[in-house]
Amino acid sequence: MTVINDIMTSINAKPQNDKHHPKKVVFVVYPNFVLLDLSGPLQVFSHAQTQGTRQTAYETAIVSLEGGTVPSNTIVSIETTPIAEIEGKTIHTLVVIGGDGAYISMHDEKLIEYVTRMASEAERVCSVCSGALILAATGILDGRRAVTHWEDCRQLEEAFPKVQVEVDPLFIKDGHIWTSAGITAGMDMALAVVAEDLGRPAALAMARDMVTHMVRSGGQSQFSPALDRQSLDSTGRFDKLHDWIADNLQSDLRVETLANQANMSSRNFSRLYSSQMKVTPAKAVEAIRIEVARELLETSALGVKEIAMRCGFNDDERMRRAFVRTLKTSPTEYRLHFQTNND
Q: What's the CA gap between 201 and 50, in Å, rounded?
């Protein structure tokens, strides 16, 4: 397999772009890729517009090794361009899509050679989900922080020990290399890329059009606390209670209050809740307060004291202790690492 020893030098020598000219985004797929890994980011880049204009900001292309129709992991197949026809053309952002097929394609020397050369010329290189395995096979992730779907992290770590694999984040930006966790995390990464290229208002507009969150920080966990609660509470018995807690964080949320909201006696509620949710009601309330505080720290300009009050901690020291105990960091440090650009 051809190895480009000076790949980092080539990548860092980036030409200047005309800000009014659409940026070329190329998606690499292969048999048995995950359809949503492609369609989510593709939708973001296809419809993003330059601020203050109706001009399309990106020009997209989908390529595969041989071109033609490539099957996804669903009944839907995608028409692609042969990768050889794209090689040598100016690429702003290269995106390698994930899927079970990555486990085979990561050993395809011809594909890896093409991706290596394209990555050496692209201004930005990204992967969605297990697409990180293909990027890692090129050597471009050596010495870099990277993430993939949590189910693929062990494989990435074992097959490519030079990659600094992190299990938790939604996406990671290490220089001009972006990697993302599974499925919808690719959309989070794409929106963050749009925010970097076009400004936060353009990304907000895209998120509103797509009725999705904006903008989930890459530092957020791909393990959703809300989803964990729903998994434990498979019958949905406490769903309404959890929603009510999130809407009433400044209220007195003692066990008696929660039991009354659930139409149960305090003793029976405490016993049943702890058994079902594997955590005490008090710990559950604290976890929800921390979730909301994290979101406010990431997405708002509110002061730490104001956030502590809004989330029912009553004072910032109490919130600080909860953050240190749960996240091993203070609210201030958390904001420094994960706050999105509020320009």
A: 10
* End-to-end CA, the chain: 45
Residue 89: exposure state from Cβ atoms within 10 A (0-12, 13-18, ≥19): exposed
Q: CA 261 to CA 343: how far, in whole Å?
A: 40
Which parts of the chain register pLDDT below 70?
1-20, 51-53, 211-234, 337-343
Asked if residue 141 lies in contact with residue 118, where contact means CB atoms within 8 angstroms, the answer is no
Q: What is the pLDDT of residue 6?
A: 38
Phi, psi of 79 (to 5 degrees): -80, 130
Name which of 170, 169, 94, 81 is nearest 134 in CA terms: 94
Domain 225-338 CATH class label: mainly alpha
Domains 7-210 and 225-338 share a fold: no
pTM above 0.90, yes or no: no
pLDDT of residue 325: 87
- Per-domain residue ranges of the chain: 7-210, 225-338
What is the distance, to the nearest Å, from the Cα of residue 11 to the centroid of all Cα atoms in its chain? 23
Q: Which helix (H) or strand (E) holds 178?
A: strand 177-180
| DSSP state for residue 171 in the 8-state scheme | E
- pLDDT > 70: what percent of the chain? 84
Look up the CATH architecture of domain 7-210: 3-Layer(aba) Sandwich (3.40)
**What confidence score (pLDDT) does residue 14 get?**
42
